Amino acid sequence: MTIHKEGYTTIAITILLIFVINAVVDYKYYDITWLRWFIYIFSAALFIIVLQFFRNPGRSFSAGETLVICPADGKVVVIEETEEGEYFKDKRLQVSIFMSPVNVHINRNPISGVVKFFKYHPGKYLAAWNPKSSTENERTTTVVEHKSGVPVLFRQIAGALARRIVWYVKEGDQVVQTEQFGFIKFGSRVDVFLPVGTKVNVELNQVVKGGITTLATLS
Fold first, then answer.
1. What is the rounded distance in angstroms from the CA atom of residue 25 to the CA atom of residue 20?
2. pTM of the model
3. Distance separating alpha carbons of residues 203 and 214, to the nearest angstrom
4. 120: which of 39, 79, 154, 159 lies 20 to 30 Å off by Cα?
5. Which of 60, 134, 188, 219 is an active site residue?
6. Vertex 28, ends 26 and 31: CA angle to 5°?
7. Is 134 a catalytic residue?
8. CB-count burial class (<10 Å; 0-12, 13-18, 19+) for 160
9. What is the pLDDT of residues 47-56, one digit of tens each?
10. Are residue 35 and residue 142 in the same domain, yes or no?
């Protein structure tokens, strides 16, 4: 397992903060043993939590020309037909994955193809499971056209804790299935919009793995 590049600055700041807090406690409250041990334990727990959040575990990825691979770790919270109003402006099959703070937060391309559309939207920070988060929260929208001509839209959505969305794609890019297209910090959601009638291979509340679980099969 390695640490994702998006975590370097946060981890460095965390280490500095831990060092300062421990130094102050050791200097000012050296005679209060219970307080010093409480700060030591708190510091260790904080460091482990931040470190695990930015983990980048080694994986054997799934692949397939007609397969839509899960773009993120988490739990499936939505499988339904809905009106997609930003790009398609028609009915699509929406599959949404909720990412909790304990999940790996790397986002991966569900299919290979050409990026036909990309847009970043500043916005609110509603809880990621709130239905309005898809249209009101900070988010990015990416549409990749499969070589068969089928477009797939996927959307990074910030949550109540996530205050930074990172993306690595732009319009015109040729992207490869399961390669990283972005990262979201501290709890979030990814929506995938597929053509109506697409065979979905996951169920509600199923725990999924980014780059591994097969989300759907394109017709």
1. 9
2. 0.86
3. 11
4. 79
5. 188
6. 70
7. no
8. middle
9. 998 888 888 8
10. no
